[in-house]
Amino acid sequence: MSLKKRRAVFLDRDGVLNIPIIKKNKSYAPLKYKDFKLYPKLKFYCQKLKLSFLLIVVTNQPDIGRKKIKLTELKKMHHKLKKIINYDELYFCSAISKKSYYKKPNPGMILRAIKEFNIEPKKSYLIGDRWSDIMPGNKFGIKTLFIDRKYKEKKPNKYFRKVKSFSEAARVILNDKS
Ligand SMILES: [Mg+2]
After folding, report:
1. For the chain, which residues make up each domain, given as ranges?
2. How far is the centre of ligand 1, averaged over its atoms, from the C-alpha of 14 (Å)?
3. Ligand 1 (ion): which residues have CB within 5 A?
4. Checking DSSP bridges between strand 125-128 and strand 54-60, what pairing results, if any?
5. 152-171: per-residue pLDDT in tens?
6. Residue 139, Cα to own-chain centre: how many angstroms?
7. CA of 7 relative to ligand 1 center, distance in Å
8. CA of 1 to the centre of ligand 1 (A)
9. Ligand 1 mean position to 159 CA, how many Å?
10. How far is the CA of 164 from the centre of ligand 1 (A)?
11. Fewest CB within a 10 Å sphere: which of 21, 31, 86, 175?
């Protein structure tokens, strides 16, 4: 077994990989499979990233806990995502409570991935569209890319880069020599 640490790109889901439902300038996860629409160029850039990185999706899905969406519906979405981007792992947290260790901004999901895949955080990246993604990424020394979709909510004030789209985030990572 190789002990060499691996590099990863951690990916939030809603607003990063798929187009969220926007209501009053706030972002929500789609509740129906038919509304699960991926951003353009996602496949193209994920194929490039996968040549050098593990792709690890880490997503809060409290609507499961709230019973607003069925697990079968969520799994259909993730099956589609697997076919398109071929992620290495997807962790989701269905907890409603902010106290859940696995719910972002708490570190549980990211820490679990770091351990299970022997990931080197400082040589890895995280792409997120909210403060709650960026915060735990920073905590582990992961290089964080904030896609600013101008939601009406608290923004992160510390990140590696601020970008406008997933495509731009991927290009930053692919060109980063730091
Ligand atoms: Mg998001």
Report:
1. 8-175
2. 4
3. 12, 14-15, 129
4. unpaired
5. 999 999 999 999 999 999 99
6. 16
7. 22
8. 35
9. 15
10. 14
11. 175
Residue 12 contacts residue 135 (beta carbons within 8 Å): no
Q: Which fold has domain 8-175?
A: Rossmann fold (3.40.50)
Instruction: Give me the helices (H) in 51-165, please.
Output: 62-65, 71-85, 108-117, 131-139
The whole-number pLDDT of residue 178 equals: 87
Mean pLDDT calculated for residue range 42-57: 98
CA of 4 to the centre of ligand 1 (A): 30
- Tokens 């590696």 locate to 160
Tell me if 21 sits within 8 A of 29, measured CB to CB: yes
Please provide residue 143's backbone torsions phi and psi, each rounded to the nearest 5 degrees.
-75, 115
- 70-86 pLDDT per residue, tens: 999 999 999 999 999 99
Distances (CA, A) of 15 to 39, 77, 120, 121, 131: 9, 14, 25, 23, 12
What pLDDT is recorded for position 1? 54
The model's pTM is 0.97
What residue type is assigned to position 67 of the chain? K
DSSP 13: S
pLDDT above 90 (res 2): no
Tell me the one-letter amino acid at 170: A
Mean local confidence (pLDDT), 110-137: 98
Q: How far is the CA of 176 from the centre of ligand 1 (A)?
A: 23
